[in-house]
Amino acid sequence: MRLANALLGWHVLNTHSFEMMTSPQKPSADGGVEHGLGLEIGADGAELYHGGTSVGASSYLYIQPEQRVVVALLTNLTLWTKPRHEMAQRLAEIVINSD
């Protein structure tokens, strides 16, 4: 979460480098992909995310750059994948709508 906040605060990368990092990469053979450098990019580009799992644990980092919202999820569940994106979206909406 500290890394995501540092990215959004321009402490790690400048604006241009962040845009490059969060732009879909183009393979030479057949069009685009939905990944920047280490982050998956949502369909409309308004959300970035990356998850990981290991034996006994799962993690998920979710970022809405325009809203400047970061959600980090850590669980003691192995292979907890699909519901974590939906939960991160809901938590982000709670933060956004709390103003």
Give an account of the 3D structure.
The chain has helices at residues 2-8, 15-21, 82-97; strands spanning 40-41, 48-54, 57-64, 69-75. The chain contains three helices and four strands; from the N terminus they run ααββββα. A four-stranded antiparallel sheet has the order 1-2-3-4, with helices on one face. Helix content is 30%, strand content 24%. The protein has one domain (2-97). By secondary structure, it is α+β, with helices and mostly antiparallel strands.
CA radius of gyration: 14 Å
Count of domain modules:
1
Computed structural class: alpha+beta
Strand order, largest beta sheet: 1-2-3-4
What share of residues are in beta strands? 15-25%
Helical proportion, percent range: 25-40%
The overall average pLDDT, rounded, is: 82
What can be said about the biggest beta sheet?
A: 4 strands, antiparallel
The total of beta strands comes to: 4
The unreliable regions are none
Gross morphology: globular
Element-level helix/strand string? HHEEEEH
The rounded distance between the terminal residues' Cα atoms is: 21 Å
- Count of helical segments? 3
